[in-house]
Write a structure and sequence with these properties.
The complex is a heterodimer of chains A (140) and B (239).
Chain A (H helix, E strand, L loop, with lengths): L1 H20 L10 H18 L2 H12 L5 H35 L4 H8 L1 H22 L2
Helix pairs in contact in A: 2-4, 2-6, 3-4, 3-6, 4-5, 4-6
Chain B lengths: L1 H22 L5 H19 L4 H12 L8 H33 L4 H5 L1 H30 L9 H9 L3 H11 L4 H8 L3 H15 L4 H11 L18
Helix pairs in contact in B: 1-2, 1-6, 2-4, 2-6, 3-4, 3-6, 4-6, 8-10, 9-10
The chains are: A mainly alpha (140), B mainly alpha (239).
Chain lengths: 140, 239
C-alpha cells in the first residue's frame, strides 16, 4: 500500500514538476469539464461491464498479500479495461473540445491548449490503472 | 550482441541530448527535463508495483551473461513495464509541452522553435523504451537458451518409470531448472495452486519428502543427460 502511494505519487510528480519547470500554470489543468469526461466516463464504462463488488475486489486484489487465483484474472481484466477506457476518454475529451473550439471565435491556439487537458489526464489516469493491473498480476 | 546494442542506444540517448543542446543553442533544460521524465517516471511507476531489489535484479539479470536464475520471468515483466511507462511518460510530457506552447501562442517564431520541446519528450520517451526493450529481448533470449541444467533426454524415461502425467513431467522439468512456483505457473499457464498440487503428486509418486530429495532423485535417474548447472540456473526456490 505504502509503496503504491509513494511510487504513484512520484510518477505523477515527475510529470507535474516537468510541466511546472516548463512554465505551465498548473491550476489551469483542473478543468472540470475535462476531468468529468476523462475520469467519470471510464468509471461508468467499467460499471456497465462489472458490478460494484467486482470493482471492490479489484481494489482489494491490488493490495492483498495474495489475491485469490480465481479472482485475479477478472481483476486484471477490469484494470486493463479501465486503462484502455482512460485512453479513449482522453481522445473523446479532445474531440469534444475540438468541436467547441472550432465553433468558437477568438484565439484558436489558446483554445486548443485547453483541449489538450483531457488527453493529458487520460494518460495520467491510465498510468495509475496500469500500475494497479501490474500489482494484481504480480502479488503472491 | 543485444547487450552491445543496449549500450550503443544508451550512448545514442546521451549523444542526442548533447546534439539537442548544441544545435538548438539552448541550455541543458532543453533535454534535461524530457530526459528526466523519460527515465524517472517509469522508475517511479515500476517501484509502485515491485520492490527496488527486484528492479535491480531485473537489470543485473539482463546485463549479466548467461541464463537468468530464479525470477527471470518477473524480470522480463518488470523491464516490459519500464518500457511501457517510458512511452506513456513521453506522450504525457509532449502533451504538456504542446499545451504550454499553444498557451503562449503560435504566431511568433520563438513558439515554432520551441516545437522541439514537444518532440524531445516523445523522442526521449521512445528512445529510453527502446533501450529497455533491447534489454528485455536480450533477457528473454537468454531465458530460452538451453543450458546444462536442463535434464532433457532423461526426463521421459524418468516420467515413464514413476508414472508421471504429461503435466507433472513439465512441472518436474521446471523444478529441475530452478523455477519458482509462480514462474512455473506462468510458464505452463496454470495457477500456483495447481502447480503445488502437481508437486505434491510428484513427491508422492517418487516417494520424496521434499524438493531437495526430488531433485537429487531426478539427477540420479537422469544422470546420463544431466550436467550441473553452471551459469546462474540455481535450484533454489525463491518463492
Amino acid at each position: 500500500m505504502k509503496r503504491f502511494f509513494l511510487g504513484t505519487l512520484a510518477a505523477i510528480t515527475v510529470v507535474v514538476a516537468a510541466m511546472w519547470l516548463e512554465g505551465e500554470n498548473l491550476l489551469a489543468l483542473f478543468l472540470p469539464s475535462a476531468l468529468l469526461i476523462t475520469l467519470l466516463s471510464p468509471l461508468c464504462a467499467v460499471l456497465a461491464v462489472w458490478d460494484l463488488r467486482a470493482w471492490g475486489d479489484a481494489w482489494r486484489d491490488a493490495f492483498a498479500a495474495s489475491p485469490e487465483e480465481a479472482r485475479r484474472e477478472r481483476s486484471a481484466k477490469l484494470w486493463d479495461f479501465l486503462e484502455k477506457s482512460f485512453y479513449i476518454a482522453g481522445i473523446l475529451g479532445f474531440i469534444a473540445g475540438a468541436i467547441i473550439v472550432l465553433a468558437s471565435p477568438g484565439s484558436m491556439a489558446e483554445h486548443f491548449s485547453a483541449d489538450l487537458v483531457s488527453p493529458l489526464w487520460g494518460i495520467l489516469f491510465a498510468i495509475i490503472a496500469r500500475i494497479l493491473k501490474y500489482r494484481v498480476l504480480t502479488r503472491d | 550482441m543485444a547487450r552491445t546494442l543496449f549500450w550503443l542506444e544508451a550512448a545514442a540517448l546521451l549523444l542526442l541530448s548533447a546534439l539537442f543542446a548544441h544545435f538548438g543553442r539552448m541550455g541543458a533544460e532543453t533535454f534535461a527535463i524530457p530526459l528526466a521524465v523519460a527515465v524517472l517516471l517509469p522508475f517511479a511507476a515500476v517501484l509502485a508495483v515491485w520492490p527496488a531489489k527486484k528492479l535491480v535484479r531485473a537489470f543485473m539479470q539482463a546485463l549479466s551473461p548467461g541464463r537468468p536464475g530464479p525470477g527471470g520471468r518477473e524480470s522480463l515483466r518488470i523491464l516490459g513495464a519500464l518500457a511501457d511507462f517510458s512511452v506513456l511518460g513521453g506522450i504525457a510530457g509532449s502533451l504538456g509541452a504542446a499545451r504550454i506552447l499553444l498557451d503562449h501562442g503560435m504566431e511568433t517564431m520563438d513558439a515554432i522553435v520551441e516545437f522541439d520541446r514537444i518532440l524531445a519528450f516523445l523522442l526521449f520517451g521512445i528512445l529510453y523504451a527502446l533501450c529497455v526493450s533491447v534489454l528485455k529481448a536480450s533477457l528473454a533470449r537468454a531465458s530460452e537458451r538451453p543450458v546444462n541444467g536442463d535434464i532433457g533426454e532423461g526426463l521421459p524415461s524418468f516420467a515413464g518409470k514413476y508414472g508421471l502425467s504429461a503435466r507433472e513431467t513439465e512441472v518436474a522439468a521446471s523444478i529441475a531448472r530452478g523455477l519458482s512456483y509462480k514462474e512455473t505457473a506462468d510458464g505452463l499457464h496454470i495457477s500456483v495452486k495447481t502447480v503445488k498440487t502437481h508437486i505434491t503428486h510428484l513427491y508422492s509418486k517418487t516417494s520424496c519428502s521434499d524438493r531437495v530429495a526430488f531433485i537429487l532423485l531426478l539427477r540420479a535417474e537422469t544422470a546420463n543427460s544431466y550436467k550441473r548447472p553452471r551459469d546462474g540456473a540455481s535450484l533454489r526456490n525463491d518463492d
